[in-house]
Amino acid sequence: MNGLYSLKPWYAARLSGVRGALARRDVSPDALTAAGVVSAAGAAAALAWLPAPLAAVPVALLLAARLAFANLDGALARDTGRTTRRGALLNELGDRAADLVVLAGFLALAPLWLVAITALAATLPSWVSLAGAAAGAPRRNGGPMGKTERCLLVLVAAATGWVVPVLAVIAVGSLLTAVLRCGGLWKELAR
Hints:
Blueprint: H1 8-14, H2 16-24, H3 29-49, H4 56-79, H5 85-104, H6 112-134, H7 147-160, H8 163-190
């Protein structure tokens, strides 16, 4: 069950011209990782400060940029032969920071406990995947509640104001995703 993650190859192909332009300009993959975190912070600010549905357009644009930068940083590093272990670490830290920063936008709109639980749950699928990779299994991605699905739901909240239901769906979906990934890894590592 890969969810919207199954669209990643299609999306990467759409960004190939951008990757080429970035490579020609010698843009650092690390700069793209940082730009993804900044885009996430912008989306969080728009979510927190603008009422629904006015928040929808800036949140959509900034989350689209966040996803594009998340796709471009690693691809640019591979395309230009600049993959490093430090870059991989920065990529993972940047992705987790961007995830948490976006959810921090809900702090102005929902109870702290709900935002905190959602933030913890939203990071669990990635931690499970990273633990599996550290144990020698292939990295697991996708959903039912991956990064792209979370961004889509944040946009739903920005457009509708349905903050509490969206946070609940993100939390439950993320826990389910972590359990499914863990189950798959458990079987994989038993081989």
